[in-house]
Amino acid sequence: MKNMKVGDLVLLRGGIWSSYGREGEVGLLLETSLLTDRSGYPDAEFSRVWWDNGESKLYKSDHLEVIE
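Above: the chain sequence. Below: its structure as tokens.
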């Protein structure tokens, strides 16, 4: 699997529990960050993805796949 970097096109794969309305769609990776203060949840990397309608949202990075 290719490492993600800003500017990559990514596919949202979702996860075990997925309320993502955009699962299976491709967006543009804007940034990634490690979130450490999540009310008792373990640290996790999240990525902000920009969609074709101008909306951007955070998703768990391991739910994204780089399009090559």
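The chain has one domain: 9-66.
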